[in-house]
Design a protein that fits this description.
heterodimer, A: eight-stranded antiparallel sheet, 3 helices, about 35% helix, about 35% strand, B: Chemotaxis protein chec, eight-stranded antiparallel sheet
Chain lengths: ~150, ~150
């Protein structure tokens, strides 16, 4: 995948997270994903169809998810991972993808997105889009975030 | 939904030589609990949403075994995940071709499949309603789940 397209997602995540109150998001690393196992209990996935085909997944641990949801609600404590934080995270990632796709369109790659789905479970194994997956790590005061980008070229 | 069941039926019969008994279609609300192994494929177009193929890890291992002719022990082997993804892709592809040809203008397109396996997984879709059909096969119970909404 072309690196300029990846940047659209990185910028999208940083900007939208900042808008929703998570201001200290910094990129800490970029890797090719080598193992199938994932330590992250919370995964939000959005599909891409069009000039770019694939899936993007925002993955994090449960604590991080709760902290971010609480931040989005203006500091309201969120103790349990129930409907409210789930829908908050889906909405966050929906906005991120929407904005990123807008940026992709400006670059000439017209892409459509599916609605977000949140997958929550333990000891998970995942295979995204049957292709090599790029993992971008972010850190914030709320915890660590991972953006997985898997697109077919 | 009927298209999905028909597609699954054909694929299981032709590819795997497995007979299936279909259950009743039911509505499931905005979330469902996975049996342990889920293939998910996104749909966009005039309708958008997701197609899920959900089964237990044992069933996934068995199906992969039938497809490739090799023996697998756990879902941690990449081939099992790939086999599951391919199966989902074929079923969903057939079903969507069918739907697109019946309702011209819908123009639904698929994302590549992703596979998740784990313990106590639940899937959650915001503001979408799911419809599912349970299929009993000789390899185990397989659930087809479709969530869709009209695109804005």
């Amino acid at each position: 995948m072309d690196i300029k397209y990846v940047n659209a997602f990185i910028n999208g995540l940083i900007e939208i997270a900042g808008m929703l109150g998570v201001n200290d998001l910094t990129r800490t690393g970029l890797d090719k994903r080598e193992k199938l196992k994932t330590e992250n209990d919370v995964n939000v996935i959005i599909g891409l169809v069009g000039d770019i085909k694939g899936n993007v997944v925002l993955a994090m641990q449960e604590n991080t998810a709760l902290n971010i949801a609480s931040k989005m609600m203006g500091g309201m404590p969120v103790a349990e991972f129930d409907l409210m934080p789930k829908s908050a995270l889906c909405e966050l990632f929906n906005m991120v993808s929407g904005r990123s796709v807008g940026e992709l369109e400006k670059m000439g790659a017209i892409t459509n997105i599916t609605p977000p789905t949140l997958i929550y479970g333990h000891n998970m194994i995942s295979l995204i889009s049957q292709v090599e997956t790029l993992v971008i790590q972010f850190s914030t005061a709320e915890g660590l975030l991972e953006l997985n980008i898997a697109t077919e070229d | 939904m009927a298209s999905f069941v028909r597609a699954a039926n054909n694929v299981f019969k032709q590819m795997l030589d497995l007979g299936i008994n279909k259950g009743q279609a039911e509505s499931e609300g905005d979330s469902f609990i996975s049996q342990g192994f889920t293939v998910m494929i996104g749909l966009t177009g005039a309708w958008q949403g997701w197609f899920f193929l959900d089964m237990s890890q044992d069933t996934a291992v068995k199906l992969a075994g039938i497809m490739t002719g090799e023996e697998y022990e756990t879902v941690e082997s990449e081939e099992v995940l790939l086999a599951g993804a391919e199966m989902g892709n074929i079923i969903c592809g057939n079903a969507i071709t069918d739907i697109n040809s019946i309702h011209s203008g819908l123009n639904i397109r698929l994302t590549p499949p992703s596979v998740f396996a784990g313990e106590g997984m639940s899937m959650f879709n915001v503001r979408l309603n799911a419809c599912s059909v349970i299929l009993q096969t000789d390899a185990g119970t397989i659930k087809l789940n479709v969530v869709m909404r009209e695109a804005k």
